[in-house]
Amino acid sequence: MKRKASKMKYGKVEVPENPFDPKTTKIKVTSWFDADLILMLKDKADQEGTKYQTLMNHLLRDAVMKHESLEQRLEKIERALKVKTG
To answer: Which DSSP category does 15 fall into?
Structure first.
């Protein structure tokens, strides 16, 4: 006997149809980082009023999602410098 698919409910929260969207699903990963880097991330996160894991996720996403080549980045810097120096 087949059951009709329905939205899951968890307490008073309704879970969306696709609760495992890769962009919103968190996965626990164990990694090793230099201690000074983690301390800097924690300090920066404190200054920004966020958690360091959230900040790390944001920074990693920015780094990975940027598809600029070195040449494109250099051109952008050169344009910015020309604007500032006239």
So the answer is: P
The b-or-e profile of 29-57 (16+ CB within 10 A means b, else e) is eeeeeeeeeeeebeeebeeeeeebeebbe
C-alpha distances in angstroms, 37 versus 2, 34, 41, 45, 63?
52, 5, 6, 12, 16
**pTM (global) more than 0.70:** no
Contact status, residue 64 vs residue 54, Cβ threshold 8 Å? no
Categorise residue 19: left if φ over 0, alpha if ψ from -120 to 50, beta otherwise: alpha
Average pLDDT on 10-27 reads 75
Whole-angstrom Cα Rg for the chain = 21
